[in-house]
Amino acid sequence: MEVIAVTERLVLRVFDEIDVEDAKTFWGDQEVMEHCLGSLPHEHLQKVLASYAACHQTKGLSVYAVVEKQSGRVIGAAGFNVQTTLESVELIYHYAKSAWGKGYATEAASACIDFAKKNPQVFKIYASADPKNSGSLKILEKIGFEYKGTKWFDETNQEEPYFEINLVHSSL
Fold first, then answer.
1. Which domain holds residue 104?
2. What is the CATH number of the domain that holds 22?
3. 19 exposed, middle or buried (CB, 10 Å; 0-12, 13-18, 19+)?
């Protein structure tokens, strides 16, 4: 399992099929996913994990398993939804309820941004959050995102606060 970042308390690594049970505690939990179109059916999680692993292999950037060093358990996911190119990628993060309020989202999201900055193809990282998800909005501001206003999202059928980080790559 390829590691992409190590922080003080966390390891971020490529998802593996063994992570399905842990993924149920975040992507499979309705309360965790209430601000994100709802939970995923448990029978779909294997395919989701495989698609994120494949995205990392083909594009070098993806959504990653967030492992708590102390317990060795996957407590969440953080990383990037990648569309057709890497020029503009969306930061996402989701955590099991047991991991809420401990600063893990901030720690992992910061590590993800640092990882993306090393990729010369990434020029913009964007994120949005349900306007009722105040915790997520605070995290985005804390880790350096610039608020750009609200934007309509067809996926969620609502206007959401929209944030960006523009990367400047120096040529040596």
1. 3-123
2. 3.40.630.30
3. buried
